[in-house]
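Prompt: For my understanding, could you write out one protein's sequence and backbone structure tokens?
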Amino acid sequence: MRKVLVIAVVVLMALLVACSNKEPTPNERFSSYVNHWNDQDFDKMHQMLSKTSRKTFKKEVFVDRFKKIYKDIKVSDLKIDFKKLSKKSVKKAMDDGKAVLPFTVSMKTIAGPISFDYEASLVQEGTDDDKNWYIDWDPGFIFPQMKDGGELRIKTTPPIRGEIRDRNEMPLAMNDIIYEVGIIPEKLGKNPEQSKQRMAELLGLSVATIDEKLNEGWVKPNLFVPIAKITKTDETLWNQLVTIEGVTRQETSGRIYPGGAATSTLVGYIGPVTSEDIKEKKGSYDSSDMIGKRGLEELFEEQLRGEKGVKILVVKEGDETLLAEKEGKNGENIKLTIDINIQEKIYDILNGDMASVSVIHAKTGETLGLVSSPSFNPNEILYGTRPNIWKQLEDDPKNPLLNRFYSTYAPGSVLKPITAAIGMKNGSIAPKEGLNIKGLKWSNGKGWGDYKVTRVSESNGPVDLHDAIVRSDNIYFAMQAVKMGSEAFEKGLKQFGLGEDFPYEYPITTSSISSTGKLEDEVLLANTSYGQGELEMSSLHLAIAYSTFLNEGNMLKPTLLANEKKGQIWKENLLSADQAEVIKDALRDVVVSGTAKTAGKQAKFPVSGKTGTAELKVSSDDNGQENGWFVGYPTENEDIIVSLMIEKTKGKGSYSTEKAIEILNKLKE
């Protein structure tokens, strides 16, 4: 019994010793290496290299090379798998002190997926008590084509940016030949500083900027050094530049905006990508790229930009080996419903007025013109040919950088036909029923305090709806709104789309009923009925709201892109066909005998419409500025609706209406 016990203890101790001295297998060791690789922990990978490999491939070089290559080609979804050795192969490897394990690498890159098969050679190193397996590494682990040398190279093919065109395929943003103006240093003449100073003045640059370009490492006396770009239309500028010794030009391609300031707020422009852009777009842009900065160029950046063609190559002794390739894709063209001729005519007529003008097709809802005035020339922004252009634009009291057609404003009396429509629809306004109104002021009692609604002229007898629209009677509409009640009026305004997102491809500010969306105060309710209070609308929303009267009570959906379906209905049955005729009859008489009578005489054909004046007051005693409105259309054709707002028209009489009539005359020539 004692002998058996001794034998058992000896066997147990032998087993414990064997377990404590168990050596790592090639499978276990390479599995750890693969885990570090999948985690892109290159420091730990380097620690597992054999002595020979660590000596040949220093840690800094090894780590930096892996990081740079993976970053440059934007590696993602990296996965390394390997085939484990069989028990028999493991035993042989343990005896021989070396092993070979096949593995597969797969990844996604900027040029598409890459995968390859390779083999890892492992060797045992260390003393008998501290043996372990280490990897004999070579550059083929990165890509097999690099095993015996070679460098990774990325070639990109930039896409052609899509163009923005109007309804007639006329370009609003196009790619065209431009001139790169530069200097050949050795030809600057006897007074180079004077030449650079003159060039800087003409191009809106600093001499320091020119010197910086001339001092770049690649520059040689006989080489052309590009300084700035100008368009082909800048011949006057070029004729001045060419008189400077050493200045010459070369043709290149660039973005051109033929509509200039007339279309710039709508179209926008492109500019150099910023670090913020690169971060926001998650690395899909490089520092040399251009990106849409405003308007449609920014809104449709993804479609317009296209996709770069990318090749990942291994280059060795002049030979190229393709690892992956992604075909490029040119940007899409964007075709609008806009007519550039209409845009330019409107912008010219406004002549610098601070204004928003929207023109729609009254039967299809297509936007024909969308103008913010004043504006800026995007070609000057892009090519910087006007000194201190940004400061001039930012300091301009007319604020040409403001997008006025995007913005909302108090509509004044152009809201009255909408109030009339709401009242007729809900039955609170009977068109032929007259209200007895005396004097020029009205208050609904003690709850109003000292506040009173004011109208511009007294009436002879009861005031009905037709007379109220023609004479623009504030008191009539205030009375009707109070009678209607806030709940019914709010509901009607919402039915006309106020308080909801405007259904349009370009982001137009949502029209609002009030700061809270409610009309809980009776004075606010009264003021809102005739377009004051806190209610605000865009010129485009007002234009589309008036389409209700020309389409038997249905309000059209506005469209901007040529491929959108025409004649869509946004809001149905806001009025009956007969009720719409009541509004149309009144709008015609506004121009014939009402508030637009004087300006209406300038019309070369019958015009219908409504005038409006929005008083910009902080308090009832305030003597603030005014914005002038007119929304109208040709009475007989009913094919277009013009909605115009001009800021600061106080003391200018019927200025806004005159401008609107001038626009209608010009558009119907």
The radius of gyration is 38 Å.
